[in-house]
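Appendix B. One record, verbatim.
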Amino acid sequence: MSTANPPTIAPPGAPTEVTPPPEAQVTPRQDRPDLLFVGYRDWPQYKWYKDQPVPPSSVATTTAELPGLLAALAKRDADSTRYPYLWLAPELAQEFEDRMVGPIMADWAMCSWWATLAPRAVDLSHPLWACKVHPAGCGLHDEDYDSESYHERYNPALLVPLPNESPEDRARLLKATDENDLLFDLRDQLRGPKRGSLGELIERWQRDRIKHLLHTAEDGWLILLAVPDKRYATPSY
């Protein structure tokens, strides 16, 4: 046996613990994702079964990717489903809004009353209805009355008059919007000033609705979750 390199022998009483030292404690990163989640205009109705493959998410971080995201959103709305999840870079939010509102306003322009009423100044701070008892406007909310029997017409004060235009003429013009329930929705949903041209108010209302589709991580992404004890993935908060 060679003694040139004798084995190393620990001295008596030397520690024999070989467990590696614990890793240094690391604080979790505080990074926050900045993508915007594109939410839902209507409650998804399609029941997504759990054994169905889930479509991959779509993400738009450049202008070139925006048309594809808008097409995916249109299909998701048409299918009334919660997939795919759609994500948008914050710097594209204004362009997303502009591209969304264009076709929406084109649809409004197809209404029979658009050419006549869209340029007209309206004031939605007035009561919606008028009647014989309250010709200047019924002060109570319309749901407090039977609109078929009590409310005879829209309040002419809603429409800023033109020269030689009677209250009856204005009420008749406003009634044309019944096909869209427009005045109800504008009164209840429009934020900010309630006076301006009808076309401008409609566009501001639609832009507000589009803005509310986009959810930041700080606000909490509005993602619909699957109920775990169901066969299908019912949307649920």
